[in-house]
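Priority: medium. Attachment 1 of 2:
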């Protein structure tokens, strides 16, 4: 779980971008495209990060159907989520919100689909920031490579090679957020890239800009969506 608090209304050059107002509780599927978040006045939020395959095990919905989208959680959890939203709107401290959300998730545990070797394999890939051969990851899942790729579409909404690239990019991005004085050469090495050009390519694909632009954008907002991720 994480939280974001912000008193800024800056978008740093994003004023021309069209923003959509989001519901109180948003369920975010597997993300490949960049998402820009604009905070109006002040934001207090509780964020839940699922392990790979976690949302699939909870909802039983192929993640390919939720790919690159944000959805109103009320559509998936109905009256129970509306009640949660009502409770969250009246809390005085974020810690209260964390407890409310944790209790909700604990009630869902009994309905989870069983954990399978593929879930452990994806967790292994996550813990190593994507720096594991896909063939080895497939063997950990007790599936053939083709079966593993098909099940990945179901559980995480994308093929495992793309997922591994996202994990590696995320490691590089978080390193820069946490230690902005690190050179990009050092970041590329620590994130497991073959060379700096491969990292720059992934920044262009997943962040939409070269690494040199990232610091300018981070300076314009206090929100750090990646730095606090814990595995």
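Attachment 2 of 2:
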């Amino acid at each position: 779980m994480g939280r974001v608090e912000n008193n800024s209304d800056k978008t740093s050059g994003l004023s021309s971008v069209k923003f959509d107002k989001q519901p109180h509780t948003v369920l975010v599927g597997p993300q490949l495209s960049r998402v820009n978040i604009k905070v109006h006045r002040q934001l207090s939020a509780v964020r839940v990060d699922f392990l790979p395959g976690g949302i699939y095990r909870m909802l039983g919905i192929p993640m390919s159907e939720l790919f690159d989208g944000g959805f109103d959680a009320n559509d998936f959890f109905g009256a129970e989520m509306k009640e949660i939203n009502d409770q969250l709107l009246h809390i005085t401290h974020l810690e209260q919100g964390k407890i409310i959300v944790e209790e909700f998730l604990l009630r869902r545990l009994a309905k989870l689909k069983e954990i399978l070797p593929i879930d452990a394999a994806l967790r292994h890939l996550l813990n190593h920031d994507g720096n594991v051969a896909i063939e080895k990851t497939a063997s950990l899942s007790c599936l053939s490579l083709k079966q593993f790729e098909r099940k990945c579409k179901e559980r995480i909404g994308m093929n495992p090679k793309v997922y591994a690239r996202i994990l590696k990019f995320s490691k590089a991005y978080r390193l820069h957020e946490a230690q902005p004085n690190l050179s990009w050469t050092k970041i590329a090495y620590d994130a497991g890239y073959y060379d700096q050009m491969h990292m720059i390519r992934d920044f262009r694909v997943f962040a939409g800009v070269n690494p040199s632009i990232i610091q300018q954008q981070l300076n314009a907002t206090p929100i750090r969506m990646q730095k606090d991720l814990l595995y």
